[in-house]
Amino acid sequence: MDALQQGKIRNNVYHVWDGEEVLRFLRKEGEYKDAVRPDLILLDLNMPRMDGRTVLKEIRSDDQIKAIPVVVLTTSNQERDIHESYGLAANNYIIKPVDLVQFFEVIQSVQEFWVNVVKLPKK
């Protein structure tokens, strides 16, 4: 989260800790009833309580949130993870750089593409 803020992201960034919390946030349940739905989801595959693959599957099966673009941003470079993520309808799969400067560059590229280049449907 700190890295995203240091990377000078121009949009609001919301952070949740585990996969179950991701779904509560997106579905506006409980403490998130007033949350703003994101225009883009950066999803890690390796989250506690519910992994990113399961979260992605749940997102894509929920009519209220399935149109939100999902970028998998993870440390895994395993081919099976890449294939499975795209098979679950991830929009992109990005391997997190270990170097902080490279990470900022990747995040800025993601932001540039999804905020300034791609035309998304209105909410």
What this model shows, in words?
This is Response regulator receiver protein. With 123 residues, the chain is mainly α. The chain has a single domain (2-117), classed as Response regulator (Rossmann fold, 3-Layer(aba) Sandwich), CATH 3.40.50.2300. Helix content is 40%, strand content 10%. It is built from five helices and three strands. A three-stranded parallel sheet has the order 1-2-3, with helices on one face. Helix 3 links the parallel strand 1 (41-43) and strand 2. The two termini are 25 Å apart. 19% of the residues are buried. The mean pLDDT is 89.
Going across the major beta sheet, what is the strand order? Answer: 1-2-3
Helix content: 25-40%
Oligomerization state: single chain
- CATH topology, by name, is Rossmann fold
Strand portion, in percent?
5-15%
User: CATH homologous superfamily, by name?
Assistant: Response regulator
